[in-house]
Structures are given as C-alpha cells and as structure tokens.
Specification:
Blueprint lengths: L1 H4 L3 H8 L6 H14 L5 H8 L4 E6 L5 H16 L3 E6 L4 H13 L4 E5 L5 H7 L5 E5 L9 E6 L1 H13 L4 E7 H4 L4 H8 L6 E4 L3 H14 L3 E6 L2 H13 L6 E5 L4 H4 L5 E4 L2 H17 L8 E5 L1 E4 L17 E6 L2 H17 L3 E6 L1 H9 L10 E5 L3 H6 L24 H6 E2 L2 E2 L2 E4 L3 E6 H5 L1 H11 L9 H10 L12 E4 L6 H13 L16 H13 L11 H9 L3 E7 L18 E4 L11 E5 L6 H11 L2 H9 L7 H5 L10 H10 L18 H15 L4 H26 L1
Parallel strand pairs: 1-2, 1-3, 3-4, 4-5, 5-11, 6-7, 6-8, 8-9, 9-10, 13-14, 13-15, 20-21
Antiparallel strand pairs: 10-12, 15-23, 16-17, 18-23, 19-21, 19-22
Helix pairs in contact: 5-14, 6-7, 8-10, 11-12, 15-26, 21-23, 22-23, 22-29, 23-29, 29-30
Length: 737
C-alpha cells in the first residue's frame, strides 16, 4: 500500500492510526486503500498493541429467550464501545464451561462474561486473575472473590405460591430447572404452603422435558389447579400438555419477562427479571475492570424478580352501560388515533357500543371543537393537545371527569410520574386521560458514528471525537460534517432533517435551543424576555442548523420522519409518538441502524395529547368508559403495537416492543427533564390565529430561517408583537371584568 500511495510505510501507519493531519498524505493513503481494497488486520494490530478489543460471552444456550436478550444486548453494548464479541456455548455442562473459558483465554480476550449455574470457584482458578470475568447466575451464594450478578427469584416465587394458596388452589405443581433446585430455596418456599413434594419436578431447560413433567402431573392429579414453571421453554412444553389434556382451567405461572403477545391467554402471571438491564450491568462491570484492573473490586449485584399478573385486554369492560347510540370522537390524524380506531372494534364487539372516529388535521381539530354548529354537532369526546387544556376548560368545552372515576381505584397510579398533572388536569380538577405520549429524542444513523474512517476524519477536522452531540454547538459541527456540500466524503447527503414553516413545530425546535441557552420567551412573572443575548445565540445556532437540511420545506414531524427514513440524513429530533415507523424495515432504509440519545442541551419540549369528554355530550358516562378503557394499562401494549403510544410507566420498563422501539427505555429520562411551554395568564384563550407559539414565535423564526430578516430583527419583532398582544389581552380582560 505504501508503494501504491508513493509514501513510506511509516506514513501509512500514521494515517491509519490518525497521527497526521496532512490532507495530501491522507488522500494518497486513502486512495491506495480503496484501490487495493485494504482492511486493517485486527489480529496483527492486537499483537502490537497487546490488546485484542475482544470480549467473550459464555452462555448455556441461545434458544432460551433470556439468553437471546443477553446475547443481543451485550453484543450491542460492546459494539458501541469498540469491542468485538466471541460467543461460546456450554450446553449447561460444567465440563464444557471450563473448556469454553480456556478457549477464551487462548483467544487473548480482554474479559469474559459467563452465565453459569455451577460454583464459580473452578472458573476463577482457570482464569487465575489474568483476565477480568463477570458471572451471571441464579445461585443464592457466590464467591466473595467473584464479580457477580445474582438473579433472585425467591420473593417473587413466594408471592406467587402464597397468592395461589389464598385463592383456594388446593394442589400446585412446580417444574423447575435443576439449577434452581440447588441452593435457590425454591423447594423450601413451596413447602411452606403445600406439603406435596411429589408435585415437584426438576428438569433441564428444554420444552420436551417440560411437556413430560407437566403431562405426568396433570394426568395423575385431577385436582391440580395451577402449575409454576421455571423458564419459557419449560412453559411451552407445559402449555402443550395443558391443551392436549384439555385442562385449560389450570392456572399457569412461569418465570419469564412480561410480554403481552406471549402472556395474554397463556399465563395467569409471570415472574421476571429485565435481562436487558442485567446485560447492561454486566458490560459496565467488565468495562470498569478492564479500564482499571488494579483499582477495581469484585462486587455482587442483585436483581430481584417481580411477580406480575396478566390482566386481559377485555377483562374489565362494563357491558351494562352501553347506550345504544354510537360514540363520536374528534381525533388528531396521527398513528395513535389510527391505532385506537382498530382497537375500538374490539370494544364495540364486547359492549355493543359503536365508536366513530373523525380524523382531522391539527388546526381542523381545534376548529371542530369550537364549531359544533357545522351540522355535525359536538363530538362526545376528543383528543386535546396538552397546550389546549386551559383554554378548553376556560371556554367550557371539556367536561370535568371527577364524578366519573369512582370505582377505578389505582387507575392513575402507574402513569409516568408528574405527567397526569401536565396532560390532564387544570387547577387540581381532572379533565382528561393521558393518551399519546410526547417527549423528544435525538435519532441518528448509528453506523456513521461507529465508522473508524469517519471518526478519524472528524477528529482531524474538528479536533474532537465524533460522538452523538450533547450540545447544540456540537450538533452543528456534526451536521456540517455529514452534509456533502460541506464535506465531499460524507456518506450521506444531509446532516439534519429539521421541521420548518410558520407552525408550532418550528417554535418547538426554537424552544429546544432557547432553553439550552438559558433563555425563554416569558419569565415566570409573564414578562416578555425573548429579546436577549442568549436568545440571539440560540437563534443563530438554529438558523445555522438549517444550512444542513434537505431542500424543500418540511412542515410536519411526519415530513422529517420520511426524510430520515430515506437514508439521506444523518440526524433528526423527533417526538417518540412520531418515531414509530423509523425502525420498520418495510418503510425505512435506516431500520436496524438507529442510534438515539437525549437531545442536545437536555431541553426537550413536553408534547402529547389526552382524551377528553365534551361537556355538551349526552353520552358523557359512556364516552368516559371508552376513554378510560382506551388509556388503560391493559390497552397500552396492544395500542402501541398498532402504532400508538402511552404514558403508562410499565410500557417503558418491560421488554415488549424493544425490538421495534429500542429507544423506549430512554424515554423516562427524557420525560424527567421535559418542560412545558409557558403561556402567561394574559395570553391564554387567544384566537388560534394569534397564538403565541403557533403564530408570533413561529412566524418570526420562520422569517429568520428563510433569510427574510436577520436574527436580531426576528427577536425584536417577536418581542414587540408579544408585548402588544399581552397588553391587548389585559385591556380586554379589564373591560370584561
């Protein structure tokens, strides 16, 4: 390669290792690499550097869903840190485990993660302190010298067995893996409530042994009312035995993570641990040991399993309150509304109440609520943007729901903390139910940030590492780097897909930056403070961002989604409720290659929608019943699978939909830092055309982006118009009083 490039071998080495900024030499070497199809030899590089950048994972199998989750998550976490994965399968055999670990050491891996059911002392002896090793297992005791993650099922298992006893179930079968029988306390827990050791079976992890054990127990015991199984594969065999013997009345509880598609109709309850979090913890432990081998100390971390009963989607419907009249709802035309339309057919089938959803554009929906005389009459219910609640309450359109929530104890307990007040309450009165979530994340094409050539080029160009941007200044550097007009070597055409136009979406994008620059439109006392030095810096940053967007106006979030899905754009900021299709392989070219992080500046604007009941509806109680069902915990997962979103906290913590929306675990953190756009009392209830954010702010920002005025002029105009608007409202309010 040095000969082809016409340079020395040392120059080639310097270019490959990022030790030169000489553009001419870099171009020659990179051209030679392309002509020769050269790829650096990782093994050769490791001999020189004494590091392999390889980590080993030893698993008992890869057919168990928990093991699949561990493998998927650990590989992902390691890849993001620049490590490769070496996988070894032990078949749950202690002898093979030893061989696997010895082979890992021969491969010169930098560390090992091992899922084992055996005592760890033997494996520690093999490693001999030469490499860090992290153990994952279910045994109740681990060596004090081992860095371990202990998965504990005892408390959840006892809760399950105790509930069965309280429910009057006289005979219960217990089918567990042999690993859990040894030292886990499972048999002792069972014995506290049932004195039938002959109903306990120890098997391997396979579905075949599960079928054999369950069939035998059910065949011999006609009074058996429940079976508890130790893993998903055993449970599959048990389900087959239950069906063959027509014993569907037998309650089936199994050890697995919650998953709505798998659980409803199959399991009365589950006992699960979030294996994604287990995997993330294992990688953190190992990385810490690799980075600081002399200072790192082994610690045992415990993950407690949780017992969760499966509540069917249609279990709690009140079929006696059907009015015989259809319920009409005015909806914002979005994926969540279309999801509800599909689910509502189940509601109609079960209750006899027909649901009619009218799909409307954003501005059309507000017009519809204020113009019932259009011949269609007022809808029974409606979607309301969280920014509309105070106005809809003040103008008597939204009905208070306090008198309709009796008998729904605990219904609001598991919404994301703080969101019920933001989404559905006004002056401590409930006017809606949170329906469609709304917090923002930064999404990006992941491979762009992992490509070593691009990382070297970025470091040479800007003197810093190529990472997902944490500030808006960093954001513009990355956007510039990935815009081909600015960097001919960019693999994508544009750095950013940004919403534009005189609309509320543009105003939201401005608020992201405004808050990050420690400014705002209004102060806490309602004064207009938008025309400041910090605001000017924020707006200049924003207008610069739009130098890196595709041509043609993108006026909605869906427009930016389509642009990102095309594969031509590096980054986009989206609300989670609008990101439902970006990881759909049938629609998106970036599916499977999506990275995500908190937005730059950590200043997301809280968005989202609630469902409310019209004060003028004659079917208010029936409408409320439907709303409470549509926003229930039972409807959260199926609704999300169909394209909707939810504010139910369980959705963000269980593994349902992680393959579709891998970013959902980050949303809770984003909600915690989200802020609602401030509208002082003097500006509330304004006509839509004069709205603060949808009107004045958006219009002036749009002018600055288009170059119709300078950033200074845009802020001055915004300040003048807002002050005039506030003064006019105050004068009007004084005359009305």
């Amino acid at each position: 390669m040095a000969l082809r490039a016409g340079v020395s071998v040392g120059t080639v080495s310097n270019v490959l290792n990022g030790h030169t900024n000489n553009a001419d030499l870099i171009a020659k070497v990179e051209s030679a690499m392309k002509e020769l199809n050269y790829r650096p030899d990782a093994n050769a590089r490791s001999l020189k550097s004494t590091t392999s950048n390889e980590v080993a994972l030893v698993l008992p199998n890869v057919v168990h869903p928990d093991m699949q989750t561990l493998l998927h998550t650990i590989e992902l976490e390691l890849r993001e840190r620049g490590y490769n994965l070496l996988l070894k399968i032990s078949q749950n055999n202690p002898i093979l485990e030893r061989i696997c670990v010895e082979q890992c050491l021969e491969q010169r891996v930098e560390g090992i993660i091992a899922y084992t059911g055996s005592p760890v002392e033997d494996l520690l002896d093999i490693v001999g302190g030469t490499r860090p090793i992290v153990f994952i297992g279910k045994r109740s005791r681990q060596s004090a010298m081992a860095d371990s993650i202990l998965i504990q099922y005892e408390k959840a298992l006892e809760e399950a067995i105790a509930r069965l006893r309280r429910q009057g179930v006289s005979e219960v079968g217990l089918i567990l893996e042999r690993e859990m029988m040894n030292g886990s306390g499972a048999t002792e827990i069972y014995g506290r409530y049932y004195s039938r050791p002959d109903h306990i079976r120890a098997v391997d992890y396979g579905k075949e042994r599960g079928f054999q054990a369950a069939y035998e127990l059910l065949h011999r015991n006609e009074r058996m009312g429940a079976i508890v199984t130790g893993n998903y594969l055993i449970s599959e065999g048990t389900r087959k035995a239950i069906r063959l013997l027509r014993r569907e009345e037998v309650a089936h509880i199994t050890f697995k993570e919650q998953n709505w598609i798998e659980d409803e109709g199959n399991y009365a309850a589950t006992i699960g641990v979030p294996f994604r979090k287990v995997a993330e913890s294992a990688v953190r432990k190992l990385m810490g040991a690799i980075a600081s081998p002399n200072a790192y100390e082994p610690i045992t971390e415990r993950f407690e399993a949780e017992y969760a009963e499966t509540v069917p989607l249609l279990a709690n419907l009140d079929r006696s309150r059907s009015t015989g009249h259809p319920l009409r709802l005015a909806m914002f035309d979005c994926p969540a509304a279309h999801s509800l339309r599909m689910l509502s057919e189940l509601y109609t089938r079960e209750t006899g109440t027909r649901i009619e959803l009218e799909m409307l554009a954003y501005n059309e929906l507000l017009d519809r609520l204020y113009a019932p005389e259009s011949g269609r009459g007022a809808p029974d219910g409606f979607m309301m943007d969280i920014a509309w609640i105070d106005r809809l309450v003040k103008d008597g359109i939204a009905r208070p729901l306090g008198d309709l929530i009796s008998g729904r104890d605990g219904y609001f307990a598991d919404f994301v903390p703080g969101m019920l007040k933001e989404y559905a309450m006004q002056e401590d009165e409930l006017y809606g139910v949170p329906f469609m979530s709304g917090t923002q994340l930064l999404f990006f094409q992941k491979d762009l940030f992992e490509n070593p050539n691009l990382r070297r080029q970025f470091k040479r160009t800007y003197g810093t590492e190529l990472l997902p941007p944490a500030t808006w200044a960093e954001f513009n550097l990355v956007a510039e780097f990935f815009t081909r007009e600015c960097n001919e070597k960019s693999p994508v055409k544009y750095g950013y897909a940004g919403v534009q136009g005189a609309n509320v979406n543009t105003a939201i994008s401005f608020l992201n930056r405004l808050w990050a620059y420690s400014s705002d439109v209004f102060s806490e006392d309602g004064s207009v403070i938008v025309n400041s030095g910090n605001s000017l810096s924020a707006l200049k940053n924003m207008t610069k961002s739009y130098q890196y967007v595709p041509p043609g106006a993108m006026t909605t979030w869906d427009d930016t989604v389509a642009s990102f899905e095309s594969g031509d754009v590096a980054m986009v900021v989206l609300y989670d409720s609008h990101a439902v299709e970006i990881n759909d392989y049938t629609k998106s070219k970036v599916a499977g290659n999506i990275g995500y992080s908190l937005i730059p500046g950590r200043t997301p604007v809280l968005g989202g929608w609630s469902l409310g009941v019209s004060r003028s509806s004659r079917n208010g109680e029936a409408a409320a019943d439907f709303l409470f069902w549509a926003c229930s915990n039972e409807a959260a997962i199926p609704g999300s699978l169909l394209g909707g979103s939810t504010l139910r906290q369980d959705y963000y913590t269980i593994r349902d939909l992680e393959n579709l929306y891998p970013w959902k675990s980050l949303l809770l953190e984003s909600y915690g830092i989200s802020r609602k756009r401030r509208v002082p009392p003097a500006y509330r209830g304004l006509e839509r055309g004069s709205d603060v954010y949808n009107g004045v702010v958006a219009e002036e920002i749009d002018k600055a982006i288009r170059g119709a005025c300078s950033e200074e002029e845009a802020l001055a105009n915004m300040e003048r118009r807002l002050r005039a608007m506030g003064s006019g409202r105050e004068a009007t309010a004084g005359r009305e009083s």
